[in-house]
Amino acid sequence: MYTTSMGGIRSTVKECAYIRKLFDNLGLKVDERDIFMHKDYQCQLDTRLAIQNATVPHVFVNGVSLGVSNSFPIFHEVM
After folding, report:
1. Distance CA 75, CA 4 (A)
2. HSE (CB half, 13 Å, CA atoms) of 70?
3. For 49, phi and psi rounded to 5 degrees?
């Protein structure tokens, strides 16, 4: 899961916290990569998605992109 801790973009930080809490509540193990703390993670994300300046939070499961946070409220309701 690619996230950011940069507080300058409040809505993005809230979305990242939401996804983090969702997975924590579900008891799922997560490999979190903060693109603000490690700039190489932004490059990794861009490469994986074949776009520049990909947005976060962005979730992958077994290498497959599940998308960004706006797809997860529905995902959580299904579970």
Report:
1. 21
2. 3
3. -95, -5
pLDDT by position in tens, the chain (length 79): 999 988 777 888 988 998 898 889 989 999 999 999 999 999 999 999 999 999 999 999 899 998 776 666 555 554 4
Q: CA 79 to CA 1: how far, in whole Å? A: 19
- The tokens for 45 are 């994300």
Q: Pick from 43, 73, 52: which is nearest to 2 by CA?
A: 43
Question: Residue 28 has which token pair?
Answer: 């799922």
pTM of the model: 0.81
Would you report the helix, strand and coil content of the chain in percent, each value rounded to 5?
45, 15, 35
Give which of 74, 78, 72 is closest to 23, Cα–Cα: 72
